[in-house]
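Exam revision sheet. Question 4 asks you to relate a sequence to its structure. Input first:
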Amino acid sequence: MPATVVVAAAVVVAAEAVAVAAAVGDDRSGRKPSGLSPGLGAGWRPPLANVLAQRSDLTFVEVIAEAVDPRAPLPASLATLAGRGVPIVPHGIRLSLGSTERPQPARVARLAAVAQRCQAPLVSEHVAMVRAGGLEAGHLLPVPLTRQSLDVVVGNVRAVTAELGVPLALEHPASLLRWPADHLHPADFLTELAERTDALLVLDVANLHADRHNHGLDPARFLDRLPWERIAYVHVAGGVEHDGRYHDTHRHPVPPAVLDLLAEAVHRCPHRLPVMLERDGDYPSAAGMNAELDAVAGVLSVAPAAQPAPRFADSCRTAKPAGGWNAAPQADLAAEQPDPADEQRVPAAEQRDLAAEQRDLAVEQRDLAVEQRDLAVEQVDLVRALVAGGPDPAAFDPAGLAATRAALLDKRTREVAAVWPALARIPGFADRFAHYAAGAPPRGPVADGCAFAESVRTTLGIVAVAELLTHTLPRRPFAVRTGRSADRRAVAAVRLPGGAFRLLKFPAPPIDPGSRSSPTGRRPWTRPDQSATNPILPRS
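Answer key, structure tokens:
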């Protein structure tokens, strides 16, 4: 081989090496594929703001994307963390990437705006469905582990990532039921999904523990099949066993089994991992929360030394060297281009074979469309059975359906109680709301609470009535809503021009012996400000 050719080839190889090195960057920073630094993270929630603000070891925080208003400034404590250089990762729960319907454009645009507001290095979502056929499930439901379902999720993820502007990481959810048609291993499903969409993954060891307990999933086999170079970060959370099933509640302490799985994951991963603790209710004391964070940090501190991962967004692409590629490879490539005259002499047999392949492809596409229509029907049937009183779909485990139905109703009850604290204090609220809501599709905690409050309005006290009026006050510059409590006390909610808001409460009028409910026949007593001409109070 001539020396000049050898030198040219060496130049090409060296240029490619320089390009890859520049794309990968300096690994000494320990940056993960997601752009996050390895170490401890936490789910930021308003009740935990003070605890997290006092931690100096947090390498990132995660926020529920739907809880962030992209038009408003970040909460002060969250902005302080960002000012300290702590990255904020929005975590979505409402896109429904597993539904046969495309994600709603408004939700995708809002997620992108939240990412921009947080200056996020990435966002994350779930490989799950939360709605089907216009019905909201109210929580994350599993997707079928099938080829048809995988194609649906791939299409949805591609549509979302095209609009986000930052990398997307996908999390596998925990579940209390499985689809009867499942035939792909969960790790294989995730791996192919990530490869086909160029997405990252979120490993949730708490969900992995739940699937081991509820479905017999082998965690070691799952971890062995993961593409570790695509793991953006890891979730850790607590849960509880109830009626033989493990519920990933995020409201209980992290059990030792979950910490053991975390240790196994960090041992197997060839690079150091960002790992975060999730907590979404029944918050412990500051000491208790710090103890849980310290337990996670303790697992990370004893992890074996590992090489930091390359930056995923760059390492998957070979950058073009400055000055262009070497002229010799370009000449070789040009020589390999087919002669147009040769292409015109394609034998008729090859043309027939090509036409046959195209016909087969058209048949496959039609079959795929039919399969996706069938999947859409199955998804609607499942959601209707879980939240709208529909019949149980055939072949599903009845116990799994019942457990999921109860869990969804419990979550819905807690969400209404959080938005309607006065309503939640009425006697027997949990049972009464569950009885009312069973078989009625969820419409969100505000609408659900409003409908329930109206159904029991005659039994409500003055504070609960005032809460109902506040939630239903028309959004006009001047608006008034009035009502009475069970003991006939009057209350008015008033919005004044300029945005001022007032609640006016009045004592109950004395019982009139002359009314129909009294034997004396006297007319009801009224105060001057309770006349029929007063627009603040209702007519009696």
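Marking note for examiners. The radius of gyration is 30 Å.
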